[in-house]
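Review form for a predicted model. The reviewer records the input and the model, then writes brief findings.
Reviewer: anonymous (R2)
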Amino acid sequence: MRDFFRQIGRLFLREVKLVATNHSLLLTLLLAPVVYAFFYGSIYQYKVEEKVLLAVADDDKSELSRAFIQQMNHLQTVSVEMAGDLPDAQEKMYYGHCMGYIYLPAGLQKKILALQQGDIVLAVNGARFLPSSELAGSLTTLALTVGAGVRLKYNEAQGLNTKMAMQETQPVNLDYRPLYNTRLSYGAFLLPGILALILQQILLIGTCESVAYEKETGNVPLVVQMGGGSLSVTLWGKGLFYMLLFLCYAFFFLTVNFSTLEVPFRGHPGDVALLFVLFFFTLIPMGFWLGSMFPNQLVAAQMMVFSTYPIFLIAGYAWPYDSLPLPLQWVSSMVPTTPFMRVYQSIVQSGGTLKDNYATVLHLLALSAFYTLLALLGLRRLYKRQQSISL
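Model under review:
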């Protein structure tokens, strides 16, 4: 047992020295996590679109249309810019001065007071998803509210008391309450996943570069000998450095970054800590296995950087897993990001526990065992090849 810890310690210290003297590894592991976390986080710091410019063409010029425009000005998501007429409003949108326009046709108030259908035209620029979505949602709600208010006044004018008039106006009352992400903001949804993805990709890049460097310099037999000839000791002796470093990063992200970026955290810290430990136990052997297949450190870094967006897109976070084509679902199931993101999102955003996600946790455990086996086979292959060359 004493020899075991001595071997682990030697490999750990050797990895520390390797990272300290290798500029690529040093910049990747010590600078990139903090820079990327705050850079990407600052993009979505405000989380929701506010004061999106909307051109308004009012041909009705009635009390109702003026009240409608006044209510639009009170919306957090809308900034009203008046247009002379409909062509002027269309031109403002076409040339990018506004993200859309709303047209209030002449006779709108008369139709509504006569209980006829009054049409309001809303056009939004769908080239940008978030502003158009915010405008459409906010103005649809406002139009329904104003229409209900007019109908309520009409019913009261017919002699109904306020309670009966409200029941006639809204026979079915929808009690709409978004849970967890109460503001339905894209930033609050995306930021937790982005921070976890930063940790994952930098860990994979670092472990891949480390193994590829050992392969490039022919040091694999030396490293295995420092581990007493045991491939498992070699794997986890080198991997211990990355485990401790990235657990520190995970703690930093979940405290400093979540607090600075005002990202809600609803789960139990112990559940998230255990989840990250299991996640890193899967990523480290995966990175070692991938690194054993690259010819040198530069190619390893390039290929792993290239893999960032494909992994994120097929992991079921940005796009639902069930909506992926079947072959991509198979690939996605073999990527540790997929089960991790499911459990991570459940704990951090919904307040779930590991027990609530035991099936997905077992999936992650199975991937950990699978990639550990591949990493050991990859190290064995490199060890035998380089040992035979040296002989």
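Findings: Strands lie at 52-58, 78-83, 100-104, 121-124.
Further findings: The CA atoms of residues 222 and 383 lie 9 Å apart.
Recommendation: see findings above.
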